[in-house]
Write a structure and sequence with these properties.
Shape: globular
Largest sheet: 7 strands, mixed
Strand content: 15-25%
Number of strands: 22
EC number: 5.4.2.2
Number of helices: 17
InterPro entries: A-D-PHexomutase_a/b/a-I, A-D-PHexomutase_a/b/a-I/II/III, A-D-PHexomutase_a/b/a-II, A-D-PHexomutase_a/b/a-III, A-D-PHexomutase_C, A-D-PHexomutase_C_sf, A-D-PHexomutase_CS, PGM_a-D-Glc-sp
Family: Belongs to the phosphohexose mutase family.
Oligomer: single chain
Helix content: 25-40%
Cofactor: Mg(2+)
Protein name: Phosphoglucomutase
Distance between the termini: 28 Å
Length: 551
Amino acid sequence: MSEATVNSLAGKPVPRSLLANIPRLMTAYFAFKPDPAIATQRVAFGTSGHRGSAFAAAFNEAHILAITQAVCLYRRKAGITGPLFLGMDTHALSEAALTSAIEVLAANGVETMIDEHGGYTPTPVISHAILTYNRGRTEGLADGIVISPSHNPPDEGGFKYNPTNGGPADVDVTGWIGKAANDFLAANLEGVLRLPYARARKAACIHPYDYITPYVSDLAQVVDMEAIRSASVRVGIDPLGGAAVRYWEPAIERYKIDATVVNDVVDPTFSFMTADWDGKIRMDCSSPYAMAPLIAMRDTFDVAFANDTDADRHGIVTPSGGLMNPNAFLAASIAYLCANRPDWSPESAFGKTIVSSGMIDRVVAKLGRKLVEVPVGFKWFSKGLVDGSLAFGGEESAGASFLRRDGSVWTTDKDGLIMGLLAAEMTARTGKDPSQVYAEATADLGQSFYARIDAPASVEQKARLAKLDPSLIDAEELAGEPVVARLARAPGNDEPIGGIKVVASNGWFAARPSGTEEVYKIYAESFRSAEHLKQIQSDAQAVVSRLFEAT
């Protein structure tokens, strides 16, 4: 984004007048009835589940009742008979949605595991619980539901289904669940089974569960916690008021690490946040505006990190570099893990999404390892992480996970907690902070200039862009260099990328439609200069404009 688009409130405390009115939000959740004839009020599963605001009739009681009943039907159809691990984050709507979901799950007799203290559960903890339960089993497998809109503003809610592989559900699963849920909405919820909440909580199939102890006890299997302790690395941790908030003190106590939780406040208005680039509140740990308070503490700690609200993303702050670009930390992590995980198979590959930095390609090639490039969405990494063919999977949006130290699966969903702890391990074992590790690992690989911008696109144009044939791309050059590849499918698994990618030797761009706004996203990178990046972005918009005209 250009400086002209940055709101004057960005990086500053949010005025009380702009905070979400939580009583009014909760009233909207129960009072507003979605109209399934209006597209924006229907159930719509994106890459991270169904999301929306109760104020817009996009995330209301009817949605959650319908989706949960659809999940129950899907479980029956798929023969899933084990427990369902259910967790929520700290968004106000998450609490209400958990109540609605329990009413339906209890009425359907689904064995459901909820936090024993009525607390919050990070996305990766749900994945870890599913995989731990299913290990060694071939039947009676578990699955899960995560109630979270990730880092989205305080008035939004989110609802995501994770099947038996522990990762985000594939499009065939979410498509089936979404259709069934919309059918229930259209039928005014006829066919949805439901118990009053007080009875549902007492149902024999609803079980209190200790999520914290198994996850925290297992951390040493994936991160070298002893190295962090023995090196006395000073670690700063900011949960950004999210679901990880009650996980850090047990971890600090168990492993005796020198870590400080800089903010343990849970507040559904998220009034402690600084405003994001557009003046809104987002718990986006990759945003320098949302991360301004932790960045200001960069010299207080040897390394610091934050997680978003469901703790599946990470933001790394170092004394030498401040807030790291997510792509840079992914590259540094791969370089470090390759050198410090002797029990991993040398045949295991490293995964990235189609819009992640080309610096990752260069680092992996330098290490002599295999790269797997997939479409956007962490679900594409799940199978490889389960069978060990992938050692690491990472997204440019600051989400990643990797194998246990013995080479077995840890999670199949993004895990911001272990990525933060990896930054501390990296600092402990190398004596350098992650920014310095990145600089060292890429010193001979050039400099990356990477950015994402948005450009206007109508609904029809976005639909065309999502399904474009790359043979229609007429560009022979990109910012003065010959085009070497035109892609509509990911090289790593031959799946559609939902857009296009054009590659030259020292730069590339990818264009994908936004799922929520009338824009398309241009991801671009240059290995020459900032000016070269601007030329790539300009060429990208020209290419897409010609494609819109031609189609």
